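Form 7-S
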Amino acid sequence: MFQKNKPETGNLLIAEPFLQEVYFKRSVILLAEHNESGSLGFIMNKPLDIKITNVAKDFPPFSGNLFYGGPVRNDLLFFVHTLGEQIEDSIPIIKGLFWGGKTEVVKESIKSGLINEDNIKFFVGHSGWSEGQLEEELKENAWFMGKFDTDFIMNTEPRMLWRKTLINMGKEFAQYANYPENPSYN
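Output:
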C-alpha cells in the first residue's frame, strides 16, 4: 500500500524507476529504524553470489542468500528475521519482523536446524540516512514508500520484489513496474 506520509520504521522504500545511483538502482529497502537521528535500512532485493560462510568467520553452513544491505558498514553482518524472542536482543520492526540480536544464538540455532532461509535474511552492510536526509530524498521523489506485511517482505522472490512491490501499491505505481531499466531500449 502506497504511503505518502513521513517515513516510519517498517516502511519499504522503493527506488523510483529512473534512479540510476549504483547502490540503489531498483532497490527495495526495509526501514529497520527511523527516528529523529536518522534512518537505517536493508536492501531486500540484492542477493550476492557468495555464501555467508565465505564472509563470516566460524559461521555454520547456511543455504540462504547473503544480501547486499547497503553501502554503510560493509565490514559488518546484519540480519532480519521472524524469530522474535528466540533471538535474544532482537529489535522489533513491524508485527512478526525483527532485526539483530545475539549472533551466537543465531549460529547455534542454525546448527540445530531451528533457523532456515524462510525465517532469516543476512546482509553485508546497511543503508543509512542522517537526520532529515531521507525526508529530503522523499521530497525529491527519489523513493516511493509503502507499508507491507512480514510475509510479503520475507517471502517475495528477491529479484521480483521491486516489480511486485510497485504492482501491489496500485494502478498509479503498477505502470512503473514495466519500465525498462534503460529507457533507450524502449
